[in-house]
Write a structure and sequence with these properties.
This protein is α+β, with helices and mostly antiparallel strands and 413 residues long. The protein contains 11 helices and 26 strands. Substrate binds at residues 124, 138, 237, 241, 347.
């Protein structure tokens, strides 16, 4: 039997030519410490810049870079052209001799944050999650949702400087906390450290200040998506959030996957969002007949594991507010977009208990516990490793792998 080579992928590989997510890598162990744009193919990464040079591609200036930002800014037509070229490079036999030496095993490279993050915004767009949170903290309320929830996608601004790539350790944050029975606040490490399983959307094309982005222009601006873990210190958050919302309980770290999946790779995963129960204002209204041909939801199958043990499988298809609606709302006041803007979907939670995307919900704010092979958990302990992974339906019954985002909790500094 001939030796298997990188281009000979196993049938059904979720990182086949139908996927081709982008990342940034280096090979410090091979005398190549500089960062380079790469494209994942199976368990290998293609040096996209070197391939562009070797094949005399017109896209050298976009791919022979240490970050994805130049490609992000190039626009939708160019994104499609580059993707078409990459697909040819890894599938056309005539390119084989050139491409194969430029494929490097993932086990031999270091993956980096794939783009320079401009602004970071996080939303709160799962009805299941919002209702669970409402039931936990407002058990006597007539409605578990706040009055505005069905009328607009609620969000807040985070810290772009603390967005880190998968595999980066997360230091347990310290801050003020005050339990209901405490006479006064105390300072110290968070004792209720949590996760939020989310999907991040990466903006490519900027917009002008003073101009809003319509629902129909979503794909003109957003390049792709990644997995995102919005780490949350629930005790810090509970004490600080009134009246202006999250601050130190959220800003200490946000982890993203090393791979950005182009929206173009996810056409087969597009689905209609849940039925709307309230009339939406025109800039958010996706109920028009044209929306049937441009469904705004995505069928992404997420799993959450703690120390290798799966604790939840949140379905992204249940998200009430779509990424297009989030973008429209984020810019409706004239706030501009910048290349490298990142916005999170908000915690993804389904209707079932095993589909909840945070420990806050899985343990009902610490009332219950999770039984793991290495012990019980209500919130995260030092040394815990959290991994989010996901896939989406692809063309012809294939799967599109979305990679993973992982982080290990280390003690407070």
């Amino acid at each position: 039997m001939p030796e298997q080579i990188p281009l000979d992928l196993t049938e059904g590989d979720p990182f086949g030519p139908h996927n081709l997510p982008y990342g940034v890598f280096s090979r410090p162990g091979h005398g190549s410490p500089e960062r380079r744009v790469g494209v994942r193919l199976g368990e290998f990464v293609l040096d996209a810049g070197a391939a562009a040079v070797a094949l005399s591609s017109p896209y050298v200036s976009l791919l022979a870079q240490p970050t994805l930002n130049p490609l992000l800014a190039a626009g939708r037509t160019t994104w499609s052209d580059v993707r078409r070229a990459l697909t040819a490079w890894v599938t056309v036999p005539a390119h084989r001799d050139v491409v194969e030496p430029l494929l490097h095993p993932l086990s031999e490279v270091t993956l980096h944050l794939p783009f320079e993050v401009a602004d970071y915004v996080d939303f709160y767009s799962s009805e299941n999650h919002a209702r669970n949170v409402g039931r936990i903290f407002r058990p006597d309320a007539a409605d578990s949702l706040t009055p505005n929830w069905k009328h607009l996608p609620i969000g807040y601004h985070g810290r772009s400087g603390t967005v880190v790539v998968s595999g980066t350790d997360v230091v347990r944050p310290s801050g003020q906390r005050k339990a209901p029975a405490d006479p006064a606040p105390v300072f110290g490490p968070s004792v209720r450290l949590d996760i939020e399983a989310e999907v991040g959307f990466v903006v490519g094309v900027p917009s002008d200040m003073g101009a809003s982005v319509a629902l129909s222009d979503f794909r003109e601006h957003v390049f792709g998506l990644c997995l995102l873990n919005d780490w949350s210190a629930r005790d810090l958050q509970a004490w600080e959030y009134v009246p202006l919302g999250p601050f130190l309980g959220k800003s200490f770290a946000t982890s993203v996957s090393a791979w950005i999946t182009p929206l173009e790779a996810l056409e087969a995963a597009r689905v209609a969002p849940p039925e709307r129960t309230h009339q939406l204002l025109p800039y958010l209204d996706d109920s028009a007949e044209s929306a049937a041909d441009e469904p705004g939801g995505y069928d992404l199958r997420i799993s959450v594991a703690i120390n290798g043990h799966v604790v939840s499988r949140p379905p992204f298809s249940t998200m009430y507010w779509t990424a297009a609606q989030q973008l429209a709302h984020m810019t409706v006041n004239g706030a501009s977009l910048r290349t490298g803007d990142l916005y999170g979907s908000g915690t993804v939670s389904g209707p079932e208990e095993h589909e909840r995307g945070s420990l806050l919900e899985l343990t009902w704010n610490g009332r219950d516990h999770l039984d793991l092979p290495d012990g019980k958990r209500t919130f995260l302990e030092d040394g815990d490793v959290v991994t989010l992974s996901a896939w989406a339906p692809g063309p012809g019954g294939t799967k599109v792998g979305l990679g993973e985002v992982t982080g290990r909790i280390v003690p407070s500094a």
